[in-house]
Amino acid sequence: MSTASSTESSGGGAGVPSSSSPSSSPSGSVDPEETGRPDTPAPGPGRIGALVDRFAPALGAYAVVKATGLTVFLLLLSHTEDFLKKDPGRGGGARPWDVLGTWDGIWYQRIAENGYDPQLIPLHGYPLATYYENSAAFFPLYPWLMRLVGAVTGLGPYGSGIVVSVLASFVAAAGIFAIAERLGGFRAGVTAAVIWGLFPGSGVEWAVYSDSLFVALSAWACYCVMTRRWLAAGTLALVAGLNRPTAATVIAAVSISALVALVRRTDGVARPLTAMLMTPWGMLGYIAWVGWRMGDWTGYFKLQRGAWNRYFDWGASTLSSTLDTITGHWTFWQSNPAPDLIAVCLLIALPGLLVLLLRLRPPLVLVVYTLLTVFMALSSNQIYGNISRYLLPAFPLCVGLAVALRRLRPSTVAGLFAMPAVAAGWYAGYALFELGIP
């Protein structure tokens, strides 16, 4: 049974001074003199060129590591040809790249083609499932964009989904770069974008999945809060709520930050208040529509639990599955040794990544967003091996590590990331799609 998505001038600017820590402004930015680059491109005819100059190194490096990992992933698929023996909706297909449109990708393609028909249909004879799976578990923004791209380009659902995901991944990488650049300088920004491209679970960034789109919206919403663009932040959070239910993290982050600004009167009243009030309506609107169509206002949550076995349990299943994995007892629900061990390794690294982030004293919006993302990823009953994917939206974890690495020579950083770029084809691609269930 597949899991639902509920389940963001280059010449002299690369050199970052080796001072102990950047002097931060209240919005979490570093002094432009420390980074060697202006905080924003200067207005005028050269603005587009300045934007390209600012973002191209990060996006280029991100593209290199993603293309490398994808190539390795496809080579592994071609080597085993196991995908030829699997159901097209469950990690199979006629060609290696078809795997990128399986699992959740099949549902998104169906929605893009046929729309929704929300229903709660009882299922009998299965101890962990009481309802048939239904497309209403998947939020509409991503398949809407797939349909739009298909109408403009003539591509089918698979091709449209890949186009949306790849473009969104670059927007997400740009947002991560912009945030890390404010906190630690240009070099940290480039490194953060690369780390996100190598993160366990990053195989879905260039697949028919909504993850890249969600991170793009979340990253830029956080950036807009950091730069006090409240209406833009609220709008992005509202739209993110149409993409997946975990948008509750960015909705809360933007709303709490707006509330603090409102109390402190740092940005007046109207803009932060408007942002705070508008953020939840995308997510609430879709859940209410599903409930109305089902004739049960709690229908969405019943579907999540009854069809996908997803529900809040305060982390009991995560703890139990962790103990089972490290003791070699792969008897729990949807256990898959390779992705489960990757999840354990990520959980071991998680406290250190949080420390690296929090030592920067980042803006409140990043703290709230990251902690809530981690909490939601670990506190629900879920497919344990998917922890790597559920933590992929926690992009600020990449920022803390990137800032810690910024004093290394670029050649040293490139050497550190060379093997992970190759290995990502296995740990973030093959292990996720073929040895587990993304």
Automatic annotation (TrEMBL):
Annotated spans, Disordered: 1-46
Primary location: endoplasmic reticulum
Membrane topology: Multi-pass membrane protein
Keyword terms, alphabetized: Endoplasmic reticulum, Glycosyltransferase, GPI-anchor biosynthesis, Membrane, Transferase, Transmembrane, Transmembrane helix
Protein's UniProt keywords contain Endoplasmic reticulum: yes
Cell compartment(s), UniProt: Endoplasmic reticulum membrane
InterPro entries membership: PIG-V/Gpi18
Pathway(s) annotated for this protein in UniProt: Glycolipid biosynthesis; glycosylphosphatidylinositol-anchor biosynthesis
Residue stretches spanning the membrane: 55-77, 155-180, 186-208, 246-263, 275-292, 341-358, 365-384, 390-406, 413-433
Source organism superkingdom: Bacteria
Low complexity biased stretches: 16-29
Alphabetized PANTHER family for the sequence: GPI MANNOSYLTRANSFERASE 2
Protein name, entry field: Glycosyltransferase family 39 protein
Native source organism of the sequence: Kitasatospora purpeofusca
Lineage: Bacteria, Bacillati, Actinomycetota, Actinomycetes, Kitasatosporales
